[in-house]
Design goal:
Elements lengths: L18 E3 L2 E3 L6 E5 L2 E2 L7 H28 L5 H5 L9 E5 L15 E6 L2 H14 L4 E4 L14 E5 L8 H11 L5 E7 L1 H8 L28 E8 L4 E7 L2
Parallel strand pairs: 5-6, 5-8, 6-7, 8-9
Antiparallel strand pairs: 1-2, 2-3, 3-4, 9-11, 10-11
Helix pairs in contact: 1-3
Length: about 250
């Protein structure tokens, strides 16, 4: 972890400041310790519910995740689908960018070289793949293991905040949206993207590697536009990538 990032971090439960002590970040008021594992601060407690279920799934999928995506793109032989939602982001020069649910880091390649990149994910397996990818791409990013409902960052820390894939099955969608708003600077456009119910039922629920994780989840994959706080402005939602995903955008006043 880069020492200059310490000022951006906080205890995800109390929002108290943290100090680096040996191999851990410590809240000096509560003495709560957050270990730093292979250079990645770990902000997880006991992961429960849907978060635990999908953490397990992504840990298992992580070794072959990038290979499967490359194969899918090759079969489709269409333009990179990521370009459609990445175009929604507003990234000023030297922006500080946060991706919630960074996965293997595939989106990070699209940012200008002067962007300061941060990524958080629930899955340790996906974060390890992200580290490898960043090394291969010669890109730098600060990575963290944590839950979207408990972001370990101080208020108004980021110029760009976005999430792609996962919020459909978060334990607490409203809280996760509130956390993205909290850590965004005033005026920031927030972008939230995930699969539609059609994609889940036709693809993930049929795939032998993932179908057991989606049993009994019918109706959970929906655009959470109704969960955006009333104070937000420019709220818009639309289907993208031939209806396979939704894209929700809004601005923090």
């Amino acid at each position: 972890m880069n020492p200059h990032s310490l000022a951006l971090l906080c205890d995800p439960d109390t929002h108290g400041r943290l100090e680096m002590t040996g191999d851990a970040l410590v809240n000096p008021e509560t003495r709560t310790r957050f270990l730093v594992r292979e250079g990645i601060p770990v902000f997880l407690r006991d992961v429960e519910g849907l978060n635990r279920k999908y953490q397990t799934m992504y840990d298992r999928l992580a070794p072959g995740y990038d290979i499967a995506e490359r194969l899918y793109k090759w079969i489709r032989r269409k333009p990179d689908f990521r370009l459609e939602f990445m175009a929604e982001l507003e990234v000023p020069p030297k922006a500080r960018v946060l991706e919630v649910s960074v996965g293997t880091g595939a989106n990070l390649r699209y940012f200008r070289p002067d962007a300061e990149l941060f990524g958080l994910d629930l899955s340790w397996g996906m974060l390890r793949r992200c580290v490898r990818n960043l090394r291969n791409w010669r890109r730098d990013a600060e990575l963290f293991q944590g839950e979207g409902e408990r972001l370990p960052f101080v208020d108004a820390a980021f110029d760009c905040v976005y999430h792609v894939g996962g919020i459909n099955y978060f334990n607490d969608k409203p809280r996760a949206i509130g956390e993205m708003i909290r850590v965004a600077r005033p005026g920031t456009k927030i972008v939230i993207v995930d699969e539609t119910e059609k994609t889940v039922s036709r693809l993930y629920s049929q795939n032998p590697l993932t179908r057991k994780y989606y049993q009994g989840t019918e109706g959970a994959a929906f655009c959470p536009v109704g969960l955006v706080p009333p104070a937000m402005t420019e709220v818009q939602s639309r289907l993208i990538i031939e209806g396979k995903m939704y894209c929700l955008t809004f601005r923090k006043p």
